[in-house]
Design goal:
The protein is α/β, with parallel strands linked by helices. The protein has twelve helices and twelve strands. Strands 2-1-3-5-4 form a five-stranded mixed beta sheet. The longest helix has 42 residues, at 196-237. The chain is elongated and about 80 Å long. The chain starts with a helix and ends with a helix.
Length: 354
């Protein structure tokens, strides 16, 4: 269903990023030219340039790095430079006074050049990856998921928007983000060669890094995230067949259900929410019972397993719970196990009323 990342990168890099003037004037004239600023580069414009070149209109486009407005005016598009946001003329800057553009669809983070390009070309890129029409529901769903899980962070970091509303200093330093890694590809001050050609080579490498991680994100959501979502949706629809309370879900096939359960509960208007998920351990024949957390980024459970069970194993746990086949319950009460599905279901039902 999907082309490989190598195929995409090959299509991009088979065209020189900074081609020399060709003797074939007609061919050179037809090549689209996309401008972005020179000097220190950042994650947003390197990613924006990569994504724009995935579009049909700008496939194989030459990247021109300059701040000269007379040069920029003659180019087919300009990203992160020029002080203009005008999709009709392919101008995508976000630094100008009064710029407040957001992605929409419930997202309120101010866009960077990456978010602007994705907003206008993301559907086309996703549709090509899935080999589906842009109006297909899977394309629309991945369009939003990739923004949420990849592009929005690039927008926020470039615009100086903190992830948390707090004045407290961070507990540790994290310089491993994509933005940090892109930043480290800029020429170091100790480099003896600080020429524009050397700077352009570094930009080339940064664009490849940003683009490869973008495509990894798209591929993951297409090949793993989307199928898992379908499985969880089906299991949620069958929750009343598991228990009349509707608060216990049986996972029919092992998959990353935590990525989806919160969004699907809201989408499917599930009330009361799921308290426990039952699934077979992929390393044994045991069945796990896991308490659903209060939110995707919290460890606290909606309803943890009973306090009297926590830290117990095997016979002691079965005796305390009056349920045969118990294996363990974690000290925090977020997960436990039983040797059979029936035993795990009994543990879930008893926990609901505990």
């Amino acid at each position: 269903m999907l082309g490989s990342r190598a195929l995409f990168c090959g299509r991009i890099w088979n065209h020189s990023l900074f081609p020399k003037r060709s003797g074939n004037f007609r061919a050179s004239f037809r090549t689209k030219r996309v401008g972005t600023h020179n000097g220190t580069f950042h994650c947003d414009e390197t990613l924006a340039c990569f994504m724009l070149r995935l579009s049909s209109r700008f496939s194989g486009a030459q990247i021109v790095r300059t701040r000269d407005h007379q040069v920029l005016e003659k180019l087919n598009a300009a990203l992160d430079v020029g002080g203009v946001y005008d999709p009709e003329s392919e101008r995508y800057d976000h630094h100008q006074k009064g710029f407040t553009e957001v992605f929409g669809h419930g997202f309120n983070t101010k866009l960077s050049s990456a978010g602007l390009i994705y907003k206008h070309y993301g559907l086309e890129i996703i549709a090509k990856e899935l080999q589906l029409d842009q109006k297909h529901t899977d394309v629309q769903r991945l369009f939003l998921a990739v923004y949420k899980n990849f592009i929005e962070a690039v927008d926020a970091i470039d615009n100086g928007i903190h992830q948390y509303d707090t004045d407290q200093p961070p507990r540790y330093v994290n310089n491993t983000s994509l933005a940090h890694r892109i930043g480290r590809l800029n020429l170091d001050w100790i480099e003896p060669d600080q020429s524009s050609s050397k700077e352009d080579e570094a930009f080339h490498r940064a664009m490849e890094l940003a683009g490869s991680e973008f495509l990894q994100c798209v591929h993951f959501h297409a090949k793993s995230w989307l199928p898992a979502r379908s499985i969880v949706m089906e299991c949620l629809a069958e929750r009343h067949d598991v228990d009349s309370s509707g608060e216990i879900m049986k996972l029919n096939k092992q998959c990353p259900w935590k990525l989806h359960i919160f969004e699907l509960e809201e989408e499917m208007k599930i009330d009361p929410p799921i308290k426990y998920v039952l699934y077979q351990d992929d390393r044994s024949e045991n069945w796990r019972i896991q308490a659903v957390s209060v939110s995707p980024d919290k460890f606290e459970s909606r309803k943890a397993l009973p306090i009297s069970w926590r830290g117990l194993e095997k016979e002691k746990l079965s005796e305390e719970s009056s349920i045969p086949g118990c294996v363990f319950v974690h000290m925090s009460g977020f997960i436990g196990a039983n040797r059979s599905y029936e035993g795990a279901l009994a543990m879930a039902k008893a926990s609901l009323v505990a």
